[in-house]
Amino acid sequence: MLVVLGVSLVGYFSGTAKAVSYENTNLYYKGKDDSDAVSLMFNVYESSENVTKIADILDEYGAKATFFIGGSWADDNVDCVREIYKRGHELGSHGYFHKDHSAMTYNSNLEEIRPSVKLLEMICGKKIDLFAPPSGAFCEETLSVCAFLDMKVIMWSRDTIDWRDKDVNLICKRATQNLKGGEFILMHPKDVTVEALPEILTYIRENGLKTATVSQNLGE
Question: Looking at residue 213, what is its pLDDT?
């Protein structure tokens, strides 16, 4: 039934809307410069098991994070998505089918983003206003769609590249070297990330920083 729900949402929420200008769009690579917090961001299209492990580690350290969820994954893992939200973490959209938004028209961007937002809102009962484009790929049409949907487009200041590299020390170094408040750290639910996360959280704690959701780090 959940799969059918996802497909029906794509059809129902794929209407067109007037594009707005680039200048009216919010695009962020980090939080405020005077922040004493960093934001851990997890882009999710896989592995409910590792997502749960990550949530458990975050709980152990009293940390909060922002999870950008793919709609097609959320459709098949509703309980996991709901559990993340119940634990006090922030949810954002990562699109529906992990497409290249930089090569898409305005209407195609809308048809990919809006159903994922509506599905997440149905699952958690809260407005979703953050979008992280898959692979960091976007174009002016993507930004215009997000402005129309009253959403912020979220990038990152640090990429752990954990989807490619399996070296725990390398992942930790990318996440923490010269880390400053306000930074957005990009990760994925990979085995190496689960292994590296306690060290990353320990570094944050021992260096006078704390964790915050993306929205908190933006001052909201």
Answer: 96
* CB-based contacts of 27, cutoff 8 Å, min separation 6: 143, 152, 153, 155
- Tell me if 192 sits within 8 A of 171, measured CB to CB: yes
Question: Which whole-number Å values give the CA distances from 79 to 49, 86, 181, in the listed order?
Answer: 12, 10, 33
- 92-117 burial string, b = 16+ CB within 10 Å, else e? bbbbbebbebbebebebbbbbbbbbb
Asked whether 128 and 121 are in contact (CB, 8 A), the reply is yes
Cα–Cα distance, 192 to 167 (Å, whole number): 7
Label residue 140 exposed, middle or buried (CB < 10 Å: 0-12, 13-18, 19+). middle
Which residue ranges in the chain fall short of pLDDT 70? 1-25
Task: Please name which of 91, 93, 189, 89 lies closest in space to residue 138, comparing C-alpha atoms.
Answer: 93
Token pair for residue 51? 């997502």
How many of the other CB atoms lie within 10 Å of CB of 4? 9
* Whole-structure pTM value: 0.87
Q: Give the C-alpha separation, 26 to 145, whole Å.
A: 11
Name residues whose C-beta falls within 8 Å of residue 79's C-beta, 6 or more positions apart in sequence: none
